[in-house]
């Protein structure tokens, strides 16, 4: 269990839900699956507070429960990786905004804020927000179409339901066939409800939640396409994007190796897009270059396949992990250490003398860097003993350096959690230290916004703005710059965590 991840989880829980919920969540993280009375005893909280905290955590699907040996009691477990996903909420919302527009963005935002909601309730909440903001109000018919689009694209799925209502501890199950089937949404009933009539909606007991796997699939595809675009050009990136799109027609999104994809289908798709003239002209050359690339993302599906290719996603994850590790070695040490690391990676098992010869680094320095990498766990050591010829005489020992990628990835993941905790702590420190001036700025902005909506003149608005002195403005600018930097670092760390987690899941 990662101690650094536990610290990050604690910070996220206290930021979102407060200290009481954080105390219950931290207890579950430290001690694992526990019944209610054990949690109460460890946290020293009133039973009512523990129940309330567990209710909140279960509502947001941060805690799961299973039956104890005594079937009348439930054991509760914290989903730490699910807590970490709260950092990605802005990414999810931004992805939907770019792909579907502002209205769909608001639907996803409502679901993330409430964890689950019925389709009718989602439409009513979004319509209310649009009306309150004074935007061009979208009709309920349009809102329904937006919701249907999100369900069809698998960004929304049904919430699991209780299989057996007779048992004291519910057992929640998902029906795969009904996961993406939309229940009837009666627009006439919604209009009657808006007219203050008492109505019962047909989907009152069918709740929807965000499908995080679908978002992660998009994030993964974006990273793969971006990698090939940076390495070659935009045409190579477009080719990879089309391959991935065709893969989903034949294969599940998270398999290690896809089913064969006929390259002629990709060629036909490229021809239909007029903006890809260069790709169409040099299509075969692009396919050959990507096939020969050391990432091994695509390979021919057998010699007699007739031009079909398979996508090896597991190979891509491994290459991404290697790139992150090599970059970490470069930043933590220097280019010479990175050269030694790459040499060991290439040879798999290397003797110290060979490293000094092949790395083209002075022997003393090569030895120092090698043992630094060993000390920091980027390299591992293995000793082999070989008996002398004839079965007698002294034993000869061989020392070989090698790399255990899984071990190094877990170590870097732990460093990412530590860095993330430091960034979040620093951001909270900035907020607490400058709380007075930040609150003053918010009050001034609220007054200005209210007066502007009432039609106040520019002179009056300028007088209100002058409540913040020039020295205070300088401090606010510094705070804003610092916050932007910290937020950017947080997002970049999360990208690295995402790639490393995918690698570990597939190995």
TrEMBL record:
Residues 199-316 form the RNA polymerase III Rpc82 C -terminal domain. It comes from the Eukaryota. One of its GO terms (molecular function) is single-stranded DNA binding. Residues 325-403 form the DNA-directed RNA polymerase III subunit RPC3 winged-helix domain. Pfam families: HTH_9, RNA_pol_Rpc82, RPC3_helical, WHD_POLR3C. One of its GO terms (cellular component) is RNA polymerase III complex. Residues 9-67 form the RNA polymerase III subunit RPC82-related helix-turn-helix domain. It is found in: Nucleus. Signal peptide: none annotated. One of its GO terms (biological process) is DNA-templated transcription. Gene3D superfamilies: 6.10.140.1450, Winged helix-like DNA-binding domain superfamily/Winged helix DNA-binding domain (1.10.10.10). Keywords: DNA-directed RNA polymerase, Nucleus, Transcription. DNA-dependent RNA polymerase catalyzes the transcription of DNA into RNA using the four ribonucleoside triphosphates as substrates. Specific core component of RNA polymerase III which synthesizes small RNAs, such as 5S rRNA and tRNAs. Belongs to the eukaryotic RPC3/POLR3C RNA polymerase subunit family. Component of the RNA polymerase III (Pol III) complex consisting of 17 subunits. This is DNA-directed RNA polymerase III subunit RPC3.
């Amino acid at each position: 269990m990662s101690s650094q991840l536990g610290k990050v989880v604690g910070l996220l829980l206290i930021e979102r839900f407060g200290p009481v919920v954080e105390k219950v969540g931290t207890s579950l993280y430290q001690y694992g699956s526990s019944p209610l009375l054990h949690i109460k005893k460890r946290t020293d909280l009133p039973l009512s507070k523990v129940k309330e905290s567990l209710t909140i955590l279960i509502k947001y699907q941060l805690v799961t429960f299973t039956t104890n040996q005594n079937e009348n009691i439930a054991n509760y477990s914290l989903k730490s990786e699910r807590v970490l996903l709260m950092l990605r909420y802005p990414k999810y919302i931004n992805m939907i905004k770019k792909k579907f527009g502002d209205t769909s963005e608001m639907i996803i935002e409502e679901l993330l804020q409430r964890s689950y909601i019925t389709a009718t309730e989602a439409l009513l909440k979004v319509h209310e927000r649009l009306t309150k903001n004074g935007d061009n109000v979208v009709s309920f018919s349009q809102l329904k179409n937006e919701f249907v689009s999100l369900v069809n694209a698998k960004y929304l799925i049904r919430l699991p339901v209780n299989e057996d209502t007779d048992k004291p501890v519910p057992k929640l199950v998902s029906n795969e066939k009904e996961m993406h089937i939309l229940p009837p949404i009666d627009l006439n009933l919604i209009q009657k409800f808006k007219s203050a009539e008492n109505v019962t909606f047909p989907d009152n007991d069918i709740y929807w939640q965000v499908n995080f796997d679908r978002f992660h699939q998009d994030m993964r595809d974006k990273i793969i396409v971006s990698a090939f675009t940076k390495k070659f050009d935009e045409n190579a990136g477009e080719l990879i994007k089309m391959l991935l799109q065709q893969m989903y027609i034949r294969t599940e999104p998270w398999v290690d190796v896809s089913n064969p994809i006929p390259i002629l289908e990709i060629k036909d798709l490229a021809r239909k897009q007029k903006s890809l003239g260069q790709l169409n002209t040099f299509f075969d050359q692009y396919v050959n270059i990507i096939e020969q690339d050391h990432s091994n993302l695509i390979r021919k599906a057998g010699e007699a396949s007739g031009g079909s290719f398979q996508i090896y996603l597991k190979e891509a994850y491994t290459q991404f992990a290697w790139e992150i590790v090599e970059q970490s070695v470069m930043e933590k040490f220097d280019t010479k250490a990175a050269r030694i690391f790459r040499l060991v990676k290439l040879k798999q098992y290397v003797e110290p003398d060979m490293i000094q010869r092949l790395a083209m680094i002075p022997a003393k320095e090569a030895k120092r860097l090698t043992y630094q990498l060993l000390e920091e766990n980027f390299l591992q050591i293995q000793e082999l003993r070989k008996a002398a010829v004839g079965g007698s005489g002294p034993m000869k020992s061989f020392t070989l350096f090698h790399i255990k990628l899984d071990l190094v990835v877990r170590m870097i993941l732990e460093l990412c959690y530590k860095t993330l905790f430091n960034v979040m702590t620093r951001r909270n420190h900035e907020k607490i230290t400058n709380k007075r001036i930040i609150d003053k700025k918010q009050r001034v902005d609220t007054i200005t916004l209210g007066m502007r909506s009432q039609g106040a003149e520019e002179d009056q608005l300028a007088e209100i703005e002058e409540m913040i002195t020039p020295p205070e403005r300088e401090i606010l600018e510094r705070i804003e710059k610092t916050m932007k930097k910290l937020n950017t670092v947080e997002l970049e760390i999360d990208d690295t965590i995402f790639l490393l987690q995918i690698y570990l899941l597939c190995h």
